[in-house]
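Cont'd.
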Amino acid sequence: MIEVVVGALVYSNLLAMLSVGLNLILLTCKVSNFAHGDFVMVGVYTALTVSTILGVTPYACLPFALIAGGVISFALYRVVFEPLRTRANLVMLMVVSMALDIILRYSLHIYADLAQAWLKVHTRLFLFDDFLIEFSGVKIPGVLVFSSLTSVILLVSLYLLLFKTRLGTAMRASIENPELAEALGVNVKMVFGLSWFLSGALAAAAGVFLPFRAMVSPDTGWSMLLPTFASVIVGGVGSLSGSLIGAYTIGVAEVFLTYVLASLGVSTAYRPLVSFSAIITVLLVSPKGLSGFLNGKGWKPWKS
Amino acid sequence: MREPKSMKLDNNFFIAKNISKSFGGLQALHKVSLSIPEASLTLMIGPNGSGKTTFLQIISGILKPDDGRLVFKDHDITSLPPNLRFTLGIASTFQIPRVFPSLSVLENVLMAAGDPTPNPMRALWGVDEHELIEKAFNILKLLSLDHLWNKPASTLSGGQMKLLELARSLMSDPKLLLLDEPLAGVNPALASRIMKFLTELKSCRGIAAFLVEHRLDLALKHVDFVYVLHHGRVISQGSPDDVLEDPLVAKAYLGE
């Protein structure tokens, strides 16, 4: 049972980092980014590569993963989404992101092949070795401690950036009215590019912790995408704090329902049912998610 | 048409030369020329549909003229986009105030303090944040908005939003303020406060303002120079008294 609780918490921490990043891109560029899961895998393979070369624990590779995920995400924005920003509609942007998902995923497959030959390690279906940390006699898996610390530190930093600095103010202003922000001299392109960097970096950070709990391959990013979208929708599209609530709701619900299914002797392969059902239920009952339900009002990026 | 008396035509602060603009078949502006001297209040009046707002949007860069040139402090700005005109020192306010509704009053003003992206680390570590916030507060105090600094802009009244827009445009230390109907929908007391404030800006900070307005009663006595626009042409120009006496103006306004 303790194992289930640890699993749920780690999974929710990762979902929190992922869904806040996904939601940030929805807010700034109105892109439902289907390539978001691939940034997770960028983090996974950065951690694998660097930890193998340097011979250190993958946790120490977090800074490299943040930079790799951020830079690739920023580059995608500058090359693809920035030119499309004022020209394409929501559906086109979504389809473009699906195409990018395929491109990134197969690039990662190629990288996995190359890395396997080069580093002489398994690059598919591998696990990272974890260690236990002892707190006054209680042994806690390292991944729980480090993923919790990382998600708290990164998300608090994001909050401080958005609400306590002028750069963050410019970002919130550009979300509300990009034309007006531009008329006031703000370089909206750079501000939105920064949001892509942050989103990619957060996702790659989640990637560092994923292989401690689950065997991964370049396709794993895709399976992380569904619960991430579910978290964003449950929390409310456009509400970053809502995404946090959504992430922990979906994360805990998924792990515990899987546990119940397993103890009833049903296959755990039905786990995605939880996310799908949550998406449909929330959209039918409270389209703005939990945050909309609690506030009685909410943001409507779809209509703007 | 009278020749302008009080202005030198060789003034090179702001000059618009032969600006023409048509929408489809409709000629909105026909060879409009004017000049705005440094530290002055210039008013453009005209009946509805005379092309005032079109002209203002051409100066601020929202619209491109079909023909003609704009010169600001010896720069040809005719083809510059709005954000670059803004950085040169031309700030605009709008007929319907445009603010960021969920940002606080203070944050709205800070938005005009310059682009934070070229040097994100500076903006991040808050090197000059403190000075900027102080400056923003001083401006808000001038306009008596300082007590509302932490309120989201969406909670302000229409008049307060106009003042907030004015505060925001002052944050960038503009040289030329473009004001589209700053007195529309504003009560007379606030209107005369705004006009007095603009006069103060002119004399204390040397800021020129160009107003488009049709509430003559409130604006006329404060301004230095008036242009009258009718059917896209300048039909009269001069000091407020000259323009009031011009029979062409009365005719245009009474629609005879």
